[in-house]
């Protein structure tokens, strides 16, 4: 019961800038958290590099966002395979971060300093976060509270990374500005023994800015507004392979922490992408353009609202609605003869989903029971693939695809039992789905000598899964272990249907040795395995370890029968990481070991990427009052990490050894 206030005394208004409290239903799944301290340590670095230390969290390729093509920067978990579209849902303050056209994530746009927490929730069936969380959810939350912090690092190959955050209380709210920028002359992606005269370093330039305002609009209500913009420019190590991404996001969130808590969010996103693709001759002596995406506009609007009524007797409920509507179109020159394009292509469309959900959680002594479900109506419409002759202007292909729609469920049920204050066990079963992206549905593409046709008839992916785990602490030790079994039905994959030379439907001519593929729904991908995270803390010392072990196999028939029993492309069976260090106030020294078993480049498992092992070290030491000096070395042993492999054994590598020296400023607030 609320106590009465003395006359003329107004209630205290506290602006938190956060969402509603964590959902107790998430106790039935394994989660891993990156704290503010860990994020501060990673300031200036791309966020995806930090996430790669979490066992089982994989991007489509081993390259991080400083050298990978923007369209390969997706996130998945539990070795469900991938084709660059994310199979894990990434949220920033409740707003999905996937590109509206392609489903990839613009990691350079998110600065670590602007975040207060990053939490990886493993397991599907995320009812309250919306559809798309086949493998889990990465929840990013903005930093709160007044602060001033900045970092700048200079590194190998004329690299420079910098980030800053200034946050201040303003009236009854707060205002925060975060900036991030990086540049580098880059390294040559192709390994030395396979390079030719055409190969050169791959430079990049990125920049982002984010303005966040929170304000009280009542005794228990607050408004949170975010405006963010970013730009990303890079080249892929060949002439005619430059690309650029630009984006702007706007979101508004109302949060009420009154007797009946509720929250509502509205957001809008705009993206524009340009990219040139090139190939080389066998000796890699010269580059030739193969396609040019000269304009790829994409946009999305979305909304969500939820209420958490108090039911008493240890019962927690959540009820809500949400939706998203996206549009995107790829405009590109294709079918090059010599250095001139012969076709002008437009491919894209629109899609939407809208749903409602309910969740009920019982907290009775040591037992947590939860059940949740949602239903979504999805729609794909205005799809088209149009190609015109540049010489004559006449249409060569004019495909207008019929609209499709349907309803799909998401559900999760689970239980957690606290055995004593230190140990608990948990189990969950879930079902989820992901709509194919506009890129997968409508846009054919070429990568080197390979060509992949789109498929406007792709069905949504549907996942069913179960898992069980244990969490515990004993003195300085902590551990979380999970066994899981997932089955992804109608999994979308690039399926090899032929080898060039020849002319193939949807893509045209494919040269000798090139693969002709089409995006198709496989019968299923089965993934079974285990995840373990463990930690030890004693005074300033710490050790953290993570392991992801899985057996993933494709179930396929018909035109994809050759894939049956094979491992999904880009899915390692084992990934581990071990970090150890010493942190004493502003002094620190850390070392990280990362290992990944072999993975396959292609669906037929004919191109094998060897295992990888890297060591990273970093340290920080006070230089003056509120000023620290830092030293960081990535890939200390300069091991070759193969990120991509072509049929002619041309290997592309990830980041070689890179040395960074930096300054971190954290003045005391007055």
Which characteristics define this entry?
670 residues; mainly beta; Maltoporin, Chain A; five-stranded mixed β-sheet; 3 helices; 41 strands; 2% helix
Give a written overview of the molecule.
The protein is mainly beta. It has one domain (about 25-665): Maltoporin, Chain A. It has three helices and 41 strands. It has a 22-stranded antiparallel beta barrel. Strands 1-6-7-4-5 form a five-stranded mixed beta sheet. A four-stranded mixed beta sheet has the order 23-24-30-27, with no helix packed on it. Belongs to the TonB-dependent receptor family. It is a multi-pass membrane protein. It comes from Sphingomonas piscis.
Instruction: State the end-to-end CA separation.
Output: 37 Å
**Estimated structural class:** mainly beta
Major sheet: 22 strands, antiparallel, barrel
Helix content: under 10%
Which residues sit in consecutive blocks of at least 5 with pLDDT less than 50?
1-7
What is the H level of CATH, i.e. the homologous superfamily? TonB-dependent receptor, beta-barrel domain
Anisotropy-based shape: globular
How much of the sequence lies in strands comes to over 45%
Short synopsis of the structure:
The chain is an all-beta fold and 670 residues long. It contains three helices and 41 strands. The strands form seven sheets. The protein has a 22-stranded antiparallel beta barrel. A five-stranded mixed sheet has the order 1-6-7-4-5. A four-stranded mixed sheet has the order 23-24-30-27, with no helix packed on it.
């Amino acid at each position: 019961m609320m106590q009465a206030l003395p006359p003329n005394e107004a209630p205290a208004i506290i602006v938190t800038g956060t969402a509603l409290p964590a959902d107790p239903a998430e106790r039935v799944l394994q989660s891993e958290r990156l704290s503010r301290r860990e994020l501060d340590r990673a300031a200036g670095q791309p966020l995806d590099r930090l996430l790669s230390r979490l066992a089982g969290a994989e991007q489509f390729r081993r390259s991080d966002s400083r050298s990978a093509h923007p369209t390969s920067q997706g996130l998945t978990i539990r070795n469900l395979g991938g084709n660059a579209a994310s199979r894990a849902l990434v949220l920033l303050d409740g707003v999905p971060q996937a590109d509206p056209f392609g489903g990839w994530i613009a990691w350079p746009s998110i600065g670590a300093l602007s975040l207060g927490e990053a939490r990886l929730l493993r397991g599907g069936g995320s009812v309250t976060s919306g559809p798309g969380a086949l493998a889990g959810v990465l929840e990013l939350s903005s930093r709160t509270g007044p602060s001033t912090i900045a970092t700048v690092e200079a590194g190998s190959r004329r690299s420079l990374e910098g980030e800053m955050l200034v946050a201040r209380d303003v009236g009854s709210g707060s205002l925060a500005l975060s900036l991030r920028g990086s540049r580098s002359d880059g390294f040559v992606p192709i390994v030395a023994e396979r390079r030719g005269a055409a190969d050169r370093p791959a430079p990049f330039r990125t920049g982002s800015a984010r303005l966040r305002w929170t304000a009280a609009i009542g005794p228990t209500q607050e408004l949170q507004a975010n405006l963010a913009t970013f730009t990303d420019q890079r080249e892929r190590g060949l002439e005619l392979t430059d690309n650029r991404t630009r984006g702007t996001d706007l979101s508004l969130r109302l949060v009420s922490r009154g007797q009946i808590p509720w929250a509502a969010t509205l957001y809008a996103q705009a993206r524009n992408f340009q990219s040139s693709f090139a190939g080389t001759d066998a000796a890699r002596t010269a580059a030739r353009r193969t396609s040019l995406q000269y304009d790829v506009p994409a946009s999305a609007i979305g909304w969500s609202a939820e209420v958490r009524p108090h039911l008493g007797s240890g019962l927690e409920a959540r009820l809500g609605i949400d939706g998203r509507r996206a549009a995107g179109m790829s405009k590109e020159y294709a079918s090059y003869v010599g250095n001139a394009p012969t076709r002008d292509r437009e491919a894209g469309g629109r899609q939407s989903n809208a749903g409602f959900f309910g969740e009920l959680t019982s907290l009775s002594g040591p037992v947590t029971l939860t059940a949740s479900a949602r239903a979504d109506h999805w729609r794909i419409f205005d799809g088209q693939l149009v190609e015109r002759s540049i010489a004559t202007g006449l249409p060569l292909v004019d495909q207008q695809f019929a609209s499709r729609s349907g309803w799909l469920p998401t559900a999760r049920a689970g239980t957690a039992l606290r055995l004593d204050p230190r140990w608990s066990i948990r189990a969950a079963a879930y079902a989820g789905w992901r709509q194919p992206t506009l890129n997968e549905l409508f846009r054919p593409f070429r990568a080197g000598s390979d060509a992949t046709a789109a498929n406007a008839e792709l069905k949504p992916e549907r996942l069913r899964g179960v898992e069980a785990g244990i969490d515990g602490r004993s003195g300085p030790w902590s551990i979380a272990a999970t066994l899981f079994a997932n089955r992804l039905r109608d999994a979308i994959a690039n399926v090899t249907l032929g080898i060039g030379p020849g002319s193939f439907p949807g893509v045209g001519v494919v040269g000798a040795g090139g693969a002709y593929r089409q995006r198709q729904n496989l019968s299923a991908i089965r993934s079974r395995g285990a995840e373990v995270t463990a930690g030890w803390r004693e005074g300033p010392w710490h050790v953290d370890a993570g392991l992801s072990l899985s057996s993933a196999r494709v179930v396929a028939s018909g035109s994809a029968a050759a894939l049956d029993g094979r491992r999904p492309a880009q899915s390692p069976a084992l990934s581990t990481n071990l970090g150890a260090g010493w942190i004493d106030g502003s002094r620190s020294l850390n070392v990280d070991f990362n290992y990944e078993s072999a993975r396959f480049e292609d669906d037929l498992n004919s191109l094998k990427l060897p295992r990888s092992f890297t060591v990273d070290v970093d340290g920080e030491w006070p230089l003056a009052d509120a000023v620290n000096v830092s030293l960081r070395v990535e890939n200390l042993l300069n091991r070759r990490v193969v990120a991509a492999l072509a049929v002619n054994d041309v290997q592309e590598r990830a980041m070689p050894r890179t040395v960074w020296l930096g300054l971190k400023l954290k003045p005391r607030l007055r």
